[in-house]
Amino acid sequence: MSQDPLRLALIIGSNREGRFGKVVGDWITGVAKRRGDLAVDVIDLVDHELPTELSRDPSPEVAAELARVSPRLAEADAFVVVTPEYNHSYPAGLKNLIDWHHTQWQAKPVGFVSYGGLSGGLRSVEHLRQVFAELHAVTVRDVVSLHMPWERFGPDGAPLDEGAVQAAKMLLDQVGWWGNALREARAKTPYGS
């Protein structure tokens, strides 16, 4: 079994103007980076513009953008997706990133940090579970769900509720367990062979 830190791609899934996702993303990134068992790579969708028109033969501009993000997804052993809830689901930009990739998600765990109004973004997570199941990814059970986070984060960018900190630890523990187990399984038998 590898003793190397698990390569975690942390995806900030909102690119909306005025988004709160950066605050949430920075917080969970800080929590993850304090762990010795994770090497964190933050993929913020604000930094990646992929067209909604999928193509098997992308233009040079699209190919260049894919070259910036696709290898990072492929190299990851696990994912944490930070997602808001928009209209009872997740953002279009996040779906677009997911749809441009297929094998990069396979046989890897996905954890979720969601945020929103009274539902805390949980409806977006439930939709994402179905999408990632289709891509042969394994979603972990526990979620960090932040209800009305714009009212519950302090000026230091951390949640005021200790429960969120405990939920983050539990989520990252589960992502770590699954990530290590699946990394070992993929090394022994490549997925799909």
The main β sheet shows up as: 5 strands, parallel
CATH superfamily: Flavodoxin domain
Poorly predicted segments:
none
Averaging pLDDT over every residue, what do you get?
95
Please give the order of strands in the largest beta sheet: 2-1-3-4-5
CATH architecture: 3-Layer(aba) Sandwich
- CATH fold type: Rossmann fold
Q: Number of folding domains?
A: 1
Distance between the termini: 20 Å
Structural class: alpha/beta
Shape: globular
SSE order, one letter for each helix or strand = EHEHEHEHEH
The helix content is 25-40%
Number of helices: 5
Radius of gyration equals 16 Å
Brief rundown of the structure:
The chain has 193 residues and is α/β, with parallel strands linked by helices. It is built from five helices and five strands.
Offer a few descriptive terms:
193 residues, alpha/beta, Rossmann fold, 5 helices, 40% helix
What does this protein structure show overall?
This protein has 193 residues and is an alpha/beta fold. It has a single domain (6-188), classed as Flavodoxin domain (Rossmann fold), CATH 3.40.50. The protein is 40% helix and 20% strand. The chain has a five-stranded parallel β-sheet, sandwiched between helices. It is globular.
Topology diagram in text:
Blueprint: E1 6-12, H1 21-33, E2 38-44, H2 60-75, E3 78-84, H3 92-99, E4 109-116, H4 122-134, E5 138-147, H5 162-188
Parallel strand pairs: 1-2, 1-3, 3-4, 4-5
